Fold:
Amino acid sequence: MWKSSILLVLLLQGCSSLEFRNIAKTGVTTGVAYVIAGPIPAVANLATSMAYDELIPDSPQIADIKTKEQAAVHIATDLGMTALYAFIAYMVITLIAVPFIRRWGYNDAKAKYGRRKDDEQV
Structure:
């Protein structure tokens, strides 16, 4: 058992997902997923986070940009990510938040004040 543990540690030694920043980020999101949804989504989150940290490199720093082409690509990528985040926020608001708001308060108020309006007209 301990031999396989040593082998596993040696194989994972060069993984970027084992850096402190990535471990902290993965640990926090996995813990939140476990608390909210349970063990299966937490394991899926853990596997996805580790795979993402291994496959997708960190974004380049501004100091690493040396040519105009690199600067243009950095700006285009940054604008694209900002547009993607804005679209995701719009979708979350319109598809998730608005139905909950309507279900929790809007429909109750509409029913309450609609009944009062009907009672006043009679």
Helices lie at 2-12, 20-37, 39-55, 68-121.
